[in-house]
Specification:
Elements lengths: L1 H15 L12 E6 L2 E2 L2 E8 L5 E7 L5 E6 L5 E6 L10 E2 L5 E4 L4 E5 L6 E6 L6 E7 L5 E6 L4 E5 L3 E4 L11 E8 L4 E7 L3 E5 L6 E3 L10 E8 L7 E7 L3 E6 L4 E7 L2 E7 L6 E5 L2 E5 L9 E4 L5 E6 L5 E5 L3 E6 L4 E6 L5 E2 L2 E6 L5 E5 L5 E4 L6 E4 L4 E8 L2 E7 L3 E6 L12 E5 L3 E10 L4 E8 L7 E6 L4 E6 L6 E7 L4 E6 L15 E4 L6 E5 L8 E6 L5 E5 L2 E6 L4 E7 L15 E4 L5 E5 L2 E5 L6 E5 L3 E5 L5 E5 L2 E5 L2
Antiparallel strand pairs: 1-58, 2-31, 3-4, 4-5, 5-6, 7-8, 8-9, 9-10, 11-12, 12-13, 13-14, 15-16, 16-17, 17-18, 19-20, 20-21, 21-22, 23-24, 24-25, 25-26, 27-28, 28-29, 29-30, 32-33, 33-34, 34-35, 36-37, 37-38, 38-39, 40-41, 41-42, 42-43, 44-45, 45-46, 46-47, 48-49, 49-50, 50-51, 52-53, 53-54, ...
Length: 652
């Protein structure tokens, strides 16, 4: 009778759930709404509309992102428009005909006439380019932009549409053109490449390219920012920000010489005086000025506690304006030396959920994508709480009353004591440290019997090979160990009792292609750091994820749509079963499947946007929804997952 009931439920769900939430039993599925909000601004620019009014435009991240414009004098919000399906914008450029162009983070370009209430979707800039970075205005109404993952530069003109300026990748082995600048006197483009730094000079009319970056700087990750500023006697200069390391180079466009190397100069935006004898910039939250013909060490501090500039402008009255990343509009009057700062009212937007955890406090914890922050949802009361203070949380886990956070960027770790109030300024959560050359900790496992936590790492941009990081709860020490599989990072972890079972991914950090072809399952000793064995459970799989202890004593996991079961005692794969088609490998897979063993005896999972159920006896696969990601389960057996910015639950 029980098997017949399960069969009936399965048939019902196949009929009603195949096309997403619109046709499912709403008593089982529930939307708990957005969990995280942010007023994070990025791409910003000062412009004038056709009437000569001065405006500051910026974009607040969200789903979707919103284009905002403020009057420079009144600080009032004049424009608030959604940007299609783009969740953010890194830059904007105003063309010579006055049109504002906005490169959406999803590969789409938008246009807007300043002062109006309309945004026009111009479509995808270049086919296959899924992310757009900086933009710059050329001549005669044209604009140029930088792309990922094809490492290309595009041109757009309203009469000609889109074209590929460099006729393919600027550097064949790279994915990012991260920055771009146009020099009108020479009709020349400059493009910054990563994740191994290159500075490319491009003739936008012929596509001819030339590498400019000296060999000594090739070990940097990105040419992250580029700005052209005027100089005296035609000695105009290109400022070049290199990361990581935060070094700014000054290149004389007249002489072709690299003149200066400046440390710790914020170069999200700078501005030069028209006469060429001054450059305004921010450094260490201070507003500074220096003459580029002289060493930057001679700079003058104009104001402290200003922030980091997203955009600069020299106004009609000679005042210097800047908009900071914290949404402060700053005005500096060179004549009086007075500094005025006003906080713009940026409407918060919901941001995507990046990570989930069912915590020791009985709450569903979430981390926010890009803008960061954390939030909790109480399944018993429905109460939400937003907890600011941490950057983007990639993974969470707990032991006892303490929650551990793996935070991007720079491989940081924090721990929060749930018995005390959330107060980052007072050390709760407390920073445990960070791991050099490692970036993201998606995979976590708690080992209470050993008083240890173990975190699996994805390396920094342009690098292969992850790390296994242990945290000793007695000594409060982090220790990093190289990946058990050379040139592979860590995608899954599971406690196998006598050892830790590790699932790898062939992917590394963004901007580097894998050099291996299939992911590996490895046994690893968390006490000694010794690799005990290696095997390939799913030939050709790019990542092994979702590792859990199954109902049969085996460890279950997924490899690119194929279920595998591993006997932890015999240390061998019991069997594999192809469950669903998996997308062809593109740039990277850091995490994929999430599996949980439910009290009803079934295994539930998410992967490739699906929420599904697996019958452990028959291994039959039932898709419950085609719009789901991440997965955790509370004590009542309710499953929680994300759908973009919203937290959803499903009661089997």
């Amino acid at each position: 009778m029980k098997s017949l009931l399960k069969l009936a439920v399965g048939i019902s769900c196949l009929i009603n759930c195949s096309s997403g939430f619109s046709q499912v039993d709403t008593a089982q599925f529930k939307n708990h709404g957005p969990q995280l909000f942010a007023s994070m601004i990025q791409g910003s620019v000062f412009v004038e509309d056709k009437n000569g009014s001065e405006l500051i435009y910026t974009v607040v991240r969200g789903e979707p992102a919103h284009l905002l414009a403020y009057d420079l004098d009144t600080k009032s919000l004049q424009v608030d428009l959604p940007l299609g399906e783009a969740d953010g914008v890194w830059d904007m450029a105003q063309s010579s005909d006055g049109t504002l162009y906005i490169p959406g983070a999803d590969g789409t370009i938008f246009s807007h006439v300043p002062g109006t209430q309309e945004v026009k979707d111009l479509g995808i800039a270049l086919e296959g380019e899924t992310y757009l970075w900086n933009m710059t205005a050329g001549k005669d109404g044209e604009v140029f932009g930088a792309t990922y993952p094809g490492c290309r530069v595009f041109r757009y003109h309203p009469d000609d549409g889109f074209s590929d300026v460099g006729k393919g990748p600027l550097v064949a082995s790279e994915n990012y053109v991260r920055s771009i600048a146009y020099y009108p006197k020479a009709d020349m483009l400059y493009a910054g490449v990563g994740s191994r730094a290159h500075l490319i000079e491009i003739n936008p009319r012929t596509g001819e390219k030339r590498e400019l970056l000296p060999e000594k700087y090739k070990n940097y990750e990105f040419v992250y920012g580029l700005e052209v500023v005027p100089g005296i006697d035609g000695n105009d200069r290109l400022f070049i920000l290199l990361t990581n390391g935060s070094v700014t180079l000054v290149y004389n466009l007249k002489t072709g010489e690299f003149e200066q190397e400046i440390e710790k100069m914020d170069m999200r935006s700078i501005v030069g005086l028209p006469g060429g004898d001054g450059v305004f910039y921010t450094s260490g939250s201070s507003l500074k000025r220096f003459d580029p013909a002289y060493p930057e060490s001679s700079s003058e501090v104009l104001g402290e506690e200003v922030g980091t500039a997203n955009a600069f402008k020299v106004g009609k009255d000679g005042s210097v304006y800047l908009l900071t990343s914290g949404a402060n509009l700053v005005k500096y009057d060179p004549a009086s030396g007075q500094l005025e700062k006003n906080k713009l009212k940026v409407p918060g937007q919901p941001i995507p959920i990046q990570s989930l955890l069912y915590g020791p406090d009985g709450k569903i914890w979430s981390g926010g994508y890009l803008a960061g922050g954390n939030a909790t949802f109480d399944p018993l009361t429905g109460a939400h709480a937003f907890l600011p203070g941490l950057d983007q949380t990639e993974g969470m886990s707990f032991q006892g009353d303490r929650i551990f956070f793996g935070v991007y960027p720079k491989g940081k770790f924090y721990v929060y004591d749930t018995k005390n109030p959330w107060d980052p300024k007072q050390g709760n959560p407390e920073k445990l440290g960070q791991i050099p050359d490692q970036s993201r900790a998606f995979a976590h496992v708690s080992l209470p019997a050993k008083n240890k936590m173990v975190f699996g790492m994805i390396p920094e941009y342009g690098k292969l090979g992850g790390a296994l990081v242990t945290f000793d709860l007695i000594s409060n020490q982090l220790h990093s160990h190289s990946s058990p599989v050379e040139s592979q990072a860590i995608a899954g972890l599971c406690d196998a009792g006598e050892y830790l079972l590790v699932g790898t991914t062939i992917s590394g950090g963004l901007g580097v292609k894998p050099t291996t072809e299939e992911a590996v399952l490895a046994g690893w000793d968390a006490e000694t750091g010794e690799t005990l064995f290696q095997l390939v459970p799913v030939p050709g799989a790019s990542a092994l994820t979702g590792l859990i202890k199954g109902p049969d004593g085996n460890i279950w996991g997924m490899g690119d749509g194929t279920l595998f079961r591993f006997d932890p005692i015999q240390k061998k794969v019991v069997d594999t079963h192809r469950l669903y088609d998996f997308p062809e490998f593109k740039s990277h897979i850091w995490r994929s499947a999430f599996l949980v063993l439910h009290p009803d005896g079934n295994i539930y999972g998410t992967d490739n946007k699906k929420l599904f159920r697996i019958d452990p006896l028959t291994l039959s696969f039932t898709e419950l929804s085609n719009e789901a990601g991440l997965l955790v389960m509370d004590e009542a057996g309710t499953l929680f997952f994300r759908r973009g910015t919203d937290l959803w639950s499903f009661k089997p």
